[in-house]
Design a protein that fits this description.
The protein is an alpha+beta fold and 332 residues long. 18% of the residues lie in helices and 23% in strands. The chain has helices at residues 15-23, 51-61, 97-109, 121-124, 130-135, 185-190, 219-228; strands at residues 68-70, 80-82, 88-91, 138-142, 165-169, 182-184, 194-198, 201-202, 207-208, 243-249, 254-258, 270-276, 279-283, 293-297, 302-305, 314-318, 325-331. The protein has a 6-stranded antiparallel sheet with strand order 3-15-12-17-10-7, with helices on one face. A 4-stranded antiparallel sheet has the order 11-16-13-14, with helices on one face. It has a 3-stranded antiparallel sheet with strand order 5-4-6. The longest helix has 13 residues, at 97-109. The protein is globular, with a radius of gyration of 22 Å. It starts with 14 loop residues before the first helix and ends with a strand.
Amino acid sequence: MYGAGRVSDDSERTAFRTAEKKYKLYYNNDTKSSKREKQPKQVDLSEVIDFKSVLDSFNQNGLKPPGIIKLQSDFNYPVFCLENRPGFYFIPEALSIEEQCHWIKESLRSFPQPPNRTNHNAIYGPIPDLFTAAQNKKVFVEVGNLASDGAPGPYSGGRNLESKWQFCDGTVGIPRGDSSKSIAASVLLRKLRWSTLGLQFDWSKRNYDVSLPHNKIPEALCELARRMAVPAMPTGEDFCPEAAIVNYFGLGDMLGGHLDDMEADWSKPIVSISLGCKAIFLLGGKSREDPPTPMFLRSGDIVLMAGEARECFHATILLKVGLRKIMMAIIG
């Protein structure tokens, strides 16, 4: 129920951008109210597909809306497709509450761990145990370069460190006159926006850098992706994940229209796992001029995009106020 606020000339926007602006979170422009007191503007969500309602209706009376296909297969979960978007599969309520909680914890505790890279690497370098540090109210402090004799810098705890930053107890103040920079671990966790698993993605070059150190994707996550990718895989073939990108959404965040086009083989699906609060997923066509189809994306839903669907622009827009979302895109 939240969306576009500013009125402007849509004739200069693409159809995809117009949809993004429609569903993006905006607030009433009341200059007298503080940011916390401002109310989100409402927008008509009547055109948004709700696959949870589609599933409930299908289970009750076998009916489904026009343009939506129920995949007939031996797969253990209900799968819906769109007639005008071949290669797109939506699996509502694919994960149990217990599975959702497990992967949310892994996304916060394990997935940002080095050598996995995050959006913080460019400024702070690798940050170990960020979630634990935030729980313990630690502060990340710039320690500077080592002295010429190899002696550890301030706040080093007697250890020689390669990183210029390290955690220290938040209850211990930085000495007056010390020019060291610092930031609370809780702030770093709140500002976490992405982490990469398996082969590391170089966002500046928009390709996978095999020279970067990396660990294999956790086997449990590989097994989940293999199991869920079955409807989009050629008969007799297994999905073999090589990389994953985990996106963390904060208040008002949006992953704008884009293509996942860095992989050589588009016949294999991307397995996208939705965790946390509800969002709107926009699925467009091969051009930004193609009007996208909006659909609700709830925690536990899984989206598969393979073949022609890999050539379609898509976006994710956070819908709820004060809540967060995690999206895992697993690539084979």
